[in-house]
Model the fold of this input.
Amino acid sequence: DTRSATLLDAGYMWLVPVPAALLIGWVGAGRISLTAALLLILCAMVMLGLLLKLFTPHILGEPRSVLVIMLVLIISEALSVICVKLINVYLSPIALSAILLTSLLGPRVGVTGGLTITVIIASLAAASSGAFSAEMVNLMLCGIVGTAVSVQFLTAKPQRVRVVICGVIVAVASLIIMLAVGLMTASDLHNTMGSAVWVMAGGILSGL
Done:
């Protein structure tokens, strides 16, 4: 019934804040407290709930759909943590949530999930450097544009081939953003190109 569904949704909504806060606390060990990480993730989850209520209120009454959203967000963040800690922050598959959720639950859920994970991954970048860094701003921009591109491209026919193509398109869009930001801020072109290559790889990874 409706009450049972609401209770299940309330339980599923905790699948993200606790592990996400632990991951951010681990990435930013010594620079960000676990309490601060939990508060930040709770803000992201409030945004998620409000956007779902605004765009797709029926989803909140479907426990399986809510569970899918939570699992996709957790997987996206886990992969991003691996990239941030072990490889490169720009390799984070920031468009993965938007691609998966658009394919599984529709474009409105894709937008909602994509924007939410963008906030979380950008927070990972800030936690890794201990400051509101250029990486955070760049990932926010790439995440917003990547979400918009992914949802628009996959709305009509979310087949597997189109998902892979979507990853390539996101990669190109992210490259353009990185180069534009680098030129606007007069950053070192060599470092900008290096970051652009990594962010392209992250876009392609999102489509795989």
